[in-house]
Amino acid sequence: MNPINLLEPQERERYDYLKLVFEEEFEETNLVFHVSGILVYELLNLLNACAYLFEEFGFPESEDSRLLRYAITGTIDDYLKGGKENGF
């Protein structure tokens, strides 16, 4: 069972946005996670880490907001820096 199929429609929309930002801004890490088979797992973790941003910015109405994208990118970067301490 694909865990993405278990997401509510609003969560799926957020997941898709997050996936797009991750692919565009963290291309190398995206590839490493994909090849390792952990991409979906990590994106679901990031979805939780970014939940407050989606709420604060009023997603999906703010989907085109540069500030939202910057905030999401910063949160992903922080998440990945924390992960380096854990070996990826």
3D structure, described in words:
By secondary structure, the protein is mainly alpha-helical. The protein has five helices and no strands. Helix 1 (9-25) crosses helix 2 and helix 1 packs across helix 5.
Brief account:
With 88 residues, the chain is mainly alpha-helical.
Rg computed from alpha carbons, rounded to a whole number of angstroms = 13 Å
Number of E-type strands: 0
Estimated share of beta-strand residues: under 5%
The total of helices stands at 5
Approximate helicity band: over 70%
Identify low-pLDDT runs. none
Instruction: Name the structural class.
Output: mainly alpha
User: What is the N-to-C succession of helices and strands?
Assistant: HHHHH
Average residue pLDDT: 92
CA distance, first residue to last residue? 26 Å
What is the general shape?
Answer: globular
Question: Quick one: biggest sheet?
Answer: none
